Amino acid sequence: MIHNDWYDWLQKEFREDYFVKLASFVHDAYEQGPVYPPKQQVFSAFEHTDYAKIRVVILGQDPYHQRGQAHGMCFSVNPGVKIPPSLQNIFMELKDELGCYVPDNGYLMPWAKQGVFLLNTVMTVADSKPLSHANKGWEIFTDRAIRRINDREDPVVFLLWGRNARSKVSLIDASKHLVLEAPHPSPLSAHYGFFGCGHFARANEFLSGRGKEPVDWQIRNLEHVQ
């Protein structure tokens, strides 16, 4: 159960026809399994980042598709899991921009707790089959979530990396919010504009300029958070 200010909106969406069909598909997929993330973690991004506390939105595509990696937040992996290449590149950019050290884990929960909403636009995936749950209804749901965040009077930062995320730019009022676009941090594209994008520093400058606390982007080593 999600006990925060996403609750009423989620309950309304869950009753919509498109979501009823999506839920049926997802239920059957889990029955046939394996599907990631675990059922109880599909809505982790909503559970751990209250709507009213969102300061930054990062959009991913769909969850990691290998066992034990995904836990319902884009780019994040469970403690003890090898850091995926895209997240390793995100950490390298943070090192260059802000002097953050590269941590020994890719567990981004500390970002979520600070108001960084880590949303995959497709929220489930079959084992070893990337994008296997695309075009089943998740995109309708997550587009509506993006629009709801856009409707806030309080401005937020949207970090859109890669073609999938950048396709959502039309859902966002750039006259109110800060929208930063770059290539995906994947090793296939990071050298074409993600490295050197300056998005983390620019996000904090935007937040500080509006009287908000900047995000502490440093992920601590596991020995310091257990």
What does this molecule look like?
The mean pLDDT is 96. The strands form two sheets. Strands 3-2-5-6 form a four-stranded parallel sheet. The chain has a two-stranded antiparallel sheet with strand order 1-4. The longest helix is centred in the first third of the chain and has 16 residues, at 17-32. It has eight helices and six strands; from the N terminus they run H-H-E-H-E-H-H-E-E-H-E-H-E-H. The two termini are 25 Å apart. Helix 7 links the parallel strand 5 (157-161) and strand 6 (178-182). The chain is of the alpha/beta class and 226 residues long.
User: Which structural class should the secondary elements be placed in?
Assistant: alpha/beta
Q: What is the radius of gyration computed over CA atoms, rounded to a whole number of angstroms?
A: 17 Å
What is the count of β-strands? 6
Output the number of helix runs.
Answer: 8
Shape: globular
Strand content: 5-15%
N-C termini distance: 25 Å
Write the layout of secondary structure elements.
Layout: H1 7-14, H2 17-32, E1 35-36, H3 44-48, E2 56-60, H4 85-98, H5 109-113, E3 116-120, E4 125-126, H6 138-150, E5 157-161, H7 162-166, E6 178-182, H8 199-209
Give a nutshell description of this structure.
This protein has eight helices and six strands, in the order ααβαβααββαβαβα. The chain is α/β, with parallel strands linked by helices and 226 residues long.
